[in-house]
Amino acid sequence: MIPRIRTTARxxxxxxxxxxxxAACGGPADRSEGTSGRSGEESPASSAPPAxxxxxxxxxxxxxxxxxxxxxxxxxxxxxxxxxxxSDGVSFFPEGLKETFPTPGKRPYRLDxxxxxxxxxxxxxxxxxxxxxxxxIVPCGEGQADQFNIPPGATPFTARVAxxxxxxxxxxQIVWRLNxxxxxxxxxCEDDIVGCDEDES
Length: 201
Description:
There is one protein chain. By secondary structure, the protein is α+β, with helices and mostly antiparallel strands. It contains three helices and nine strands, in the order E-H-H-H-E-E-E-E-E-E-E-E. The strands form two sheets. A five-stranded mixed sheet has the order 1-6-5-8-3, with no helix packed on it. Strands 2-9-4-7 form a four-stranded antiparallel sheet. Strand 5 and strand 6 (132-139) form a beta hairpin.
């Protein structure tokens, strides 16, 4: 199964910004003749960073983890859509995430989730209910948490993120909150476990 990426207005806005920047700069540069842009000349060998530099990892301390948690909590609270809190939690990367959520009532549920990590750009979230399962890519360190819609029902759903045992990620965290929202406030797909055809017209 190929993990899907949440499509939101945020990514659309980012794309528009990139288009404007490219237009302002006269379009993308032609890189067919090396990074220097001068025909017939080879790029200097020193332009590529040493291999050991690319592999350097940052290890967070307690203070870094607390700062990361505060940023993640702000991302969780970014959306001011009226919502009723159901539950929330924080787990460290070495533990991963494995939660089961009952979904009684008639109001739709929304799982808001993000991550804070020194060396990880994204995590894979698996949502499952009954025989249905969907994998999603969740970016870390963004200003707004990713949101996933779950319809109410008698069968609980599960949210899973595989543990990451790397020492450099000991203080990295997964932060989530489950809410219920009004049906009119459901954005994009109504069921992110079953999934929706985004190309459907």
